[in-house]
Amino acid sequence: MAAVSGMDTSTKREQILQYIETLDIGEKISVRAIAKALGVSEGTAYKAIKEAEASGLVSTKERIGTVRIDRKRREALDQLTFGEVAEIVEGHIFGGTSGLDKSLHKFVIGAMELDAMLRYIDEGSLLIVGNRIGAHRCALEQGAGVLITGGFAPSEEVRALADENGLPIISSRHDTFTVASMINRAMYDRLIKRKIMLIEDLMTFNRPADVLRSGNNMLDFHKLSRETGNYRFPVIDDRGRVIGLITSKDAAGSPDDSPVDKYMTRHPITAAPNIAVTSAAHTMAAEGIDLLPIVDRHRKLLGVVTRQQLLDALRFAGKQQESGETFDDLIWAGFDAEEMDGTPLYKGAITPQMSGSLGMVSEGILVTLMTRAGRQMIRDAGKRDFLIDGMTAFFVKPVQIDSQIRIIPRALEMSRKTTKLEIELLDQAGLAAKAMMTAQMIDSY
């Protein structure tokens, strides 16, 4: 490719990104090599590589370097890659770097005879084993990666086979039990993270949003409104960056030949694609907006989401089964719901795992328990989703381990828009903690 030194910096970066897209998956990339190949400064090459990383074109890992990868899809979030495994176990890569972006679907602990081991190894798996050269070779031949425990290095023959097959061979100083625990914990965390719905889950990035451009006039706005049935549009510049937002309210009474730049709201609120839907919904409610442009870190438009899309997504997410227990779930698991004179009551025991540094229950645990009780009451009473606006807690006295406690939330106000609760936490001796909670109902958005 010819040098691009005669162009401005932003155009150079776009050329570099196009060049990176032509590279083979698994190919290593360096700032110096990119700068030399395209005739640009190392500073420009560095910025372009960082932009490529944000876009999912490359991945940079410690002790591995920067490697060209496939764009990761959200649907595969629960699957670790071999490169991520290497980072988790603090491993050293001895070969097969072109396969670091391949997904791991299971791991096999090689604590058995070789013939028995081979029955469990297949393509996409990872063999965790000590310094057994025969097992290393057989795993690679079966299409599996290899993780060597105890800090041992593979033989030259095995390294060459790993490079030939594009399957990583990793060495970690930790023992088999430790690395298996590390990987298992990471895989479990992915299950929980997949439950969290992100903005990018709602968007179709390859379908451009309906937009107006700087220089369009109000006649263009009315024409686009008629064609799409929409009344709110982002306004972008010639580089695709969001510079404004215009609505039918802004356009009311304006001459057809007036530029949209004159009437649009400048510097509108935007969001990144990797933020949680709940966070975006809260932003839209707090700011009173119905259309949220989604942008990359350079404010280039990726798409838009509406308030209704977020509401539908939150309702859908609330109906899904849990993918894994969080710490909050584990804390609340031992509590049962009862009713006292028409008021909900939650009873349970304080376990040793809930203790703080002084041998009493942690104040953070008490807040978590009162929050969960408040959440449960609102859901049971209104069958509606909500976001907590505020929580103020007061601690009357310490609560001892093994205490039986009761949590009683009472509604001070429950309307279509907001809910206010008073929550009491009592042990055998009486009131131990109290909280005031306010919540914004999602349906009021």
UniProtKB/TrEMBL annotation:
Domain CBS: 203-262, 264-323
Keywords, alphabetical: CBS domain, DNA-binding, Transcription, Transcription regulation
Annotated PROSITE patterns: CBS (PS51371)
InterPro entries xref list: CBS_dom (IPR000644), CBS_dom_sf (IPR046342), Diverse_CBS-Domain (IPR051257), DRTGG (IPR010766), HotDog_dom_sf (IPR029069), Ser_kin/Pase_Hpr-like_N_sf (IPR028979), Tscrpt_reg_HTH_GntR (IPR000524), WH-like_DNA-bd_sf (IPR036388)
Coiled-coil segments on the chain, per record: none
Keyword Transcription in record: yes
Pfam families linked: CBS, DRTGG, GntR
PANTHER family in the record: CBS DOMAIN-CONTAINING PROTEIN, CBS DOMAIN-CONTAINING PROTEIN CBSX3, MITOCHONDRIAL
Protein name, as recorded: Thioesterase
Organism the protein comes from: Paenibacillus glycanilyticus
High-level lineage: Bacteria, Bacillati, Bacillota, Bacilli, Bacillales
